[in-house]
Every structure is written in structure tokens, then in C-alpha cells.
Amino acid sequence: TEIYTLSLHDALPIFIGAFVNMMLMFSPMIWQVAPWYPAYVCFSTTALVAALGGLWALRRWAVWIYLGWFLVNQSVYLALHLWKSVILVLPILTLGAILFYYRKMK
């Protein structure tokens, strides 16, 4: 039996996203976006870290958590009028790595 895991290089885009979200939770500016936004960032970071752990272990359930996070996150940015095309770069790189490894996932 061969065991696969994602390399650090493949998981790096998710890790960077989670790190940025964690730094945002401590920013005073986050409270100025919307009253509910700090709670959303906390939830978003938790989902992203769960996806990172699952993707690192090559679990298919993590693909669905990541995809859900991605769709909700894009919707929130659109609703807040904060959406920019540059925020698609890391998720698209991550989705590329996910598609590459999807057949090897359990």
C-alpha cells in the first residue's frame, strides 16, 4: 500500500490564506468592515484550517470544505463590495493542486 500526502509546496497556498485570516482577526480595521465580519473571519479561518489538515492527509471531505469555504468567501467579498480578481490567485492554485491529487485521496 502506498501512502500519499501533500507536500508543503502544494499546501502552502492554503496555509498562507489561513495565516492572513488569523492576522486579520487581530486587526482593528476588521471591526469597521461590518459588525458581523469578525465572527465570519473566525469561522472562515476555522474552516480553512480544517480543510488544510484534511487536504494534507489527502481526504476527499476536505475538498468539499475547501470548495464551500471558497464559494462562501467569494460571496462575502462580493456582498461587501470588496471583491477583486487578485483574491482568486491562491484559491485557484490550491484547486489546481487538489485536482492533481484528487484520485489519490481517500
Kindly provide the radius of gyration, computed on alpha-carbon positions and rounded to a whole number of angstroms: 14 Å
State the helical fraction: over 70%
Low-confidence stretches: none
Strand content: under 5%
Number of helices: 5
Number of strands: 0
N- and C-termini, Cα separation: 13 Å
Q: Assign the structural class, choosing from mainly alpha, mainly beta, alpha/beta, alpha+beta, or little secondary structure.
A: mainly alpha
Sheet of most strands: none
Q: Order of helices and strands, N to C?
A: HHHHH
Shape: elongated
Q: Could you report the average pLDDT, rounded to the nearest whole number?
A: 83
Structural account:
This protein has 106 residues and is mostly helical. It is built from five helices and no strands. It has helices spanning 8-25, 30-33, 37-56, 60-79, 89-101. It is elongated, with a radius of gyration of 14 Å. The model has no long low-confidence stretch (mean pLDDT 83).
